[in-house]
Model the fold of this input.
Amino acid sequence: MQHPLSDLGEWPPLEWEQWRDTAETLHMYMQIVGKARLGLTPIQNHWWNIAFYLTARGLTTSAMPADRGMSLDIEFDLLSHEVVCRTSHSEIRNIPLRPVSVAKFFEEFTKTLSSLGVSVKIDPMPVEVANPIRCDIDTVHCSYDSDAVTRFFYTLGIADTLLKRFSTNFYGKISPVHFFWGSFDLAVTRFNGKRASARPGVDSVQAEAYSHEVISAGFWPGNGGYGRTAFYSYAAPTPDGLQNTVLKGKGGFNPKMGEFILDYADARASGDPADTVLEFLQDTYSAAADLAQWDRASLDRRDDVADAIRLKRPHVLQKLCDEQRASRSLQRRRLCDHHHDHGPRPQGAVRPVARSASVHSSGLFELRPELRLRWYLLEQSSSSPARF
Done:
């Protein structure tokens, strides 16, 4: 059955420099909780046991085994701004998220676990950051802008939805869409089943993460070395010639990063942000998989499910149509104002074309050609029984 993409709502702005101090503090809070998850769960391939997962309100560890037959889950509620610790023994503890030092949060969190009867060793030294400061003595990071954190959460929701959507056309081994607290990014990774050659000089963390050949995609909320909020895609090992790839849509290969980058602001400003991101994810995967000679005939899905990745519901297409119509109407008004104020129409300017009422009212004329086709196909399929 085809499941069209729902309306993702407004894409909030997320400027790294505006929320950097808060992000770096929140990153350290999450490393503390992540170290507890590391200590409570058995190692799984590629460190999948340590990641967080998106919820309707934030990020969760999911259930973890603790002492006395008890289960524990810990959630960063990024709407009510608190860390919620829940046990299967019906106990709940809340730690408010506010502008306090990482050292203070470390103290509050360890005391909370102790009060719940949870015994776990937490290594206070942060990982995957430059110039780390032990969390139990870190008084440098102490910022918390709740508005910025809420916007961060909503961007995570958008990225999570699109990465899960992108994941549906692959039959091979694929990770969940999960949030890594070490690198502070949301990611999904595809595998071709082949062991990767040993990478000289890497530590045990990287050796486990890249034990097999992968193509990974994800979302940075501004960190990661790029300095701006962005979607990314890369292959490991990197196939020869990948840096020469020219994408059909927005984004491109960043030589400094060694991976493909699509600036979140560019996607947000496009006529169809969701489609812009999905096109980027699919095109970068295709380029990397082809150059690395993956067996795409066996790994890729080619059916109605795969075809529906970029399919949208009628009301979503109507919204896009209305937005494009409003944008073109504004352009025409500006052109008319220019003509009124400055004389004849500029050479080469496009003159508005009269359209029949039937075509104009349907909205199809206003959509980009590829959206018109998807609108038509969706209307045809909606009048037919669902296919299973």
Notes: The chain has three domains: 16-144, 147-307, 314-382.
